[in-house]
Amino acid sequence: MRLLFALLLALGLAGSALGQENEQRPEWVGVWEGRIGNYPVVMCLDHWRFGGRSGSYYYLSQMKPIHLRSGDTSDQWVEGGYDGVVGSKEMPALDFTDIGEDQITGIWRADARRLRIELARIPDGAEEYYNACASNNFIAPRVIAPEFTREDAEFEGLRFTKLTYVAPPRFEDVDIAGFTFAPVEPGDHKIVDWLAARLPQGKVEDDFLQCLAGGIGAHGVDGYYSMNLSPDFVNAEFLALSSGNSSYCGGAHPNHWQEYFTFDRQTGAQLDPFDWFNSDGIGETEYGSKIMMPPLREAILKHWPVYADEADDCSGFATDQLWWNYQLRREGVLFQPDFPHLITVCEEQLIVPWSELEPFLSDAGKALRDRAGR
């Protein structure tokens, strides 16, 4: 959530956030609950640092956020459109006739239809420093206990159950899949617990909910979120897996990335790939960040693919790349450069065999190699 808030700050959207005391906020900023006509609703209203106003609300019967945008004054809001007009059709509008510290009343109107608005403030909670529309108060009523479909599968001798999140209609742009398995080795219980924690728990802190909240905070409607966790290598000693991710959480652009994890099945510990290499392979910046050293990078780039009839516009980006992803495989180590967003299309998965990695392996890396081949 704090990462999302940082993104919102960068966009200038967190008008009710750090740097502003509560008493400096307009009295209508916050999260509200009540009714429009006879329909229960939850609403958030916020202002941006550069003077704009934004909000969102949802009917409890549907739980899908509707963007609100304000005009020149804070007592007039319009659903969806920027100026209240889409083509020749007038968008529904909300006119607040009385705005108090703890209560808002007004009229919702669309064409000739009129409904009374009655709202009461939901008191600030632990999220008081965040954008109101990205706050836990606004998200919490939408939380629902998760359901999953289950499918038996097998990979390299590991029998596991694929779990696919059944996204309710309120979260139509959410796609999440993971897996679980029956513990066999001493550390498997810890790994299974870690796998379970990556899936929705039915809590406001769930990653996908926090991502959707970022979209609401920025644009008044949900972002989107996709995550698929699957095994890539397994033996009695290790389990290596990856997570394919795609999301839009209200930042400057969508994000698409791959994560790699390697676990020791004897201890349940998640392994740190930097421990696998000596000083010729991994170095450290003056700020303590771990980076790949040129000799190891040169060995890896020998495996950069050459595609027939295609110009190689990507390998050059990897020549000086300091940050890479790592994953254990039986035959060696998988490396993938961690490129900036604009060139993620250039990322390649490169598997380098143990024989070529020998000059760069630490004692821990050599032990890893021996156990991976069992």
Can you put this structure into words, describing what you see?
This protein is an alpha+beta fold and 374 residues long. It folds into three domains: 2-142, Lipocalin (Beta Barrel), CATH 2.40.128; 144-271, Heat Shock Protein 90, CATH 3.30.565; 273-374, no CATH class. The protein has eight helices and 21 strands. It has helices at 2-11, 136-139, 188-197, 207-219, 294-301, 315-318, 354-357, 363-372; strands at residues 30-36, 39-47, 53-59, 66-70, 76-79, 85-86, 89-90, 93-99, 103-110, 113-122, 148-155, 158-165, 174-181, 224-234, 238-248, 255-264, 282-284, 290-292, 324-328, 332-337, 350-353. The strands form five sheets. Strands 1-2-3-4-5-8-9-10 form an eight-stranded antiparallel beta barrel. A six-stranded mixed beta sheet has the order 11-12-13-14-15-16. It has a three-stranded antiparallel beta sheet with strand order 19-20-21. Strand 19 and strand 20 (332-337) form a beta hairpin. Helix 1 (2-11) runs parallel beside helix 4 (207-219). The longest helix is centred in the middle third of the chain and has 13 residues, at 207-219. It is elongated, with a radius of gyration of 25 Å. The two termini are 42 Å apart.
